[in-house]
Amino acid sequence: xxxxxxxxxxxxxxxxxxxxxxxxxxxxxxxxxxxxxxxxxxxxxxxxxxxxxxxxxxxxxxxxxxxxxxxxxxxxxxxxxxxxxxxxxxxxxxxxxxxxxxxxxxxxxxxxxxxxxxxxxxxxxxxxxxxxxxxxxxxxxxxxxxxxxxxxxxxx
Length: 156
What we know:
7 strands, alpha+beta
């Protein structure tokens, strides 16, 4: 019997901001962010993944082929309040860099926390997409974020 077999698995329907829905199995198991690694991805202006580095592939549990061409929200953990992503989009759509802490959902249903920075990519005055760089967050920032997100989720 594996550790995953002993953990409670819950099935949830996740609804994304564009109305898309999917069913996901969620496991309450954190995968620790690896020391010294940066997770990097790029998307088009609509959030469709156009590049994923190996650290992103490894942490997400998806293959590169599964990630490229998919909306970045595939990583949205149901514990993340929608308002957090509204703030992200409101900021980056104004051409401004965004920083925040995000609980991401892996393909296997486990999760991992990141300290994310999202930067608009502007070429010849035109928005061509976004670059997201994720770093290992401190445990204290994860705990602060968990408390804040629980409060925000209760208000949704």
